[in-house]
Design goal:
Radius of gyration: 20 Å
CATH class of the largest domain: Mainly Beta
Shape: globular
Protein name: Diacylglycerol kinase family protein
InterPro entries: ATP-NAD_kinase_N, Diacylglycerol_kinase_cat_dom, NAD/diacylglycerol_kinase_sf
Number of domains: 2
Number of strands: 19
Mean pLDDT: 81
Distance between the termini: 38 Å
CATH topology of the largest domain: Tumour Suppressor Smad4
Number of helices: 10
GO molecular function: kinase activity
Oligomer: single chain
Structural class: alpha+beta
Organism: Sphingomonas aurea
Keywords: Kinase, Transferase
């Protein structure tokens, strides 16, 4: 298993944080002429567009662009964007880049966030898939969509820990077998598989190891953790998997939370998981049949919940140390969509 990474670690590289560059752009439609844009670019993303921005950014008279190297630099950059009152925050990267930006923003915008456009250039782009943003989506496409008022609302999963660190914000939270499955996904990335292909390969591998393993193997035995929903008792049974998300659509058509819907969804699977050849296809296909609950697959809406994953948790592909966590919905955000 991977070593838990500190919450302050980022993979951003590029210009120094103070080098927020103003770039002169081509003439723009009147609807966008006065638009203030801030771009966070992760040059190490799988398909980054940083070089293209240097050639000029269409859509506004001037643009702020930065590629911070550290969490501290990212916080400083976003503070500069907030001070300049940007109208559009562009995040060029994958799910991890989006997580890092939303987390580092802290309370800068409180309830008055700028619109957000995601340019999906990472190895995994689950948020972009949920938003219907295609792989070839560009800043110019996003600006045209914004001019036409095409936006949707999403709220990230927000995770508060029992320390002084900033609450983490992302869109796909999991622990238990999800930690092991994500480690498998990292191997598929190295083999050249990305996005839904990587998710599918990792899921298939994880299920095979679970289905054919002994009852007490690491996959089937589960992890002991306390889970508590508001107003409910503490649940202390060992869990095979805990998964939570505010996404409405997941990669490769997976529907572990049942019918697509808004809000924070929570799935817990008792350990050891039962009847996998039957339950897994039904669950991933979106079934909400009562017999799944009797088999130990519990799918529910949750405004919030507390959990203690001692072995760590995954948020948008990154492993973080466990502990006492409070999980709820984060700020209301407006995303630009095609």
């Amino acid at each position: 298993m991977s070593t838990a990474l500190p919450a302050t670690r980022l993979s951003f590289v590029g210009v120094e944080p103070e080098a927020i560059t103003r770039i002169k752009a081509a003439p723009t439609p009147a609807a966008l002429g006065a638009l203030r844009i801030g771009i966070i670019c992760n040059p190490r993303a799988h398909r980054n567009h940083g070089a293209g921005y240097a050639a000029g950014v269409p859509g506004a008279d001037s643009v702020l662009i930065a590629a911070p190297r550290t969490t501290e630099a990212l916080v400083e950059t976003l503070a500069g964007f907030a001070e300049r009152r940007i109208d559009l925050l562009v995040i060029d990267g994958g799910d991890g880049t989006v997580r890092d930006v939303l987390t580092a923003a802290g309370q800068l915008w409180q309830r008055d966030w700028p619109a957000i456009a995601v340019i999906p250039s990472g190895k995994t782009n689950a948020l972009a898939i949920d938003l219907g943003v295609p792989a070839g989506w560009t800043l110019g496409d996003a600006l045209s969509a914004m001019a036409q008022g095409r936006t949707v609302i999403r709220r990230p999963v927000e995770i508060a820990r029992d320390d002084d660190s900033l609450p983490l914000r992302g869109f796909l939270f999991g622990t238990g077998a999800f930690v092991k499955a994500t480690e498998l996904a990292q191997h598929t990335h190295r083999a050249g598989a990305f996005n839904g292909v990587a998710v599918g390969l990792a899921l298939g591998w994880a299920l095979m190891l679970t289905a054919f393993g002994a009852r007490d193997n690491a996959w089937r035995a589960g992890d002991r953790m306390d889970v508590r929903l508001p107003g409910g008792p503490v649940e202390r049974d060992p869990l095979y998997l805990l998964l939570a998300s505010t996404l409405e659509r997941l990669p490769v058509g997976l529907r572990p939370f049942g019918r697509p819907r808004q809000g924070l969804k929570l799935l817990t699977v008792d350990a050891p998981p039962r009847w996998l050849p039957v339950t897994v296809p039904a669950l991933l296909g979106g079934s909400e049949a009562a017999w799944l609950k009797r088999a130990g697959f519990h799918n529910r809406d949750a405004a919030a919940f507390d959990v203690t994953p001692d072995d760590g948790f995954i948020l948008d592909g990154e492993l973080f140390a466990g502990g006492q966590l409070s999980v709820h919905q984060g700020p209301v955000l407006s995303f630009v969509v095609p």
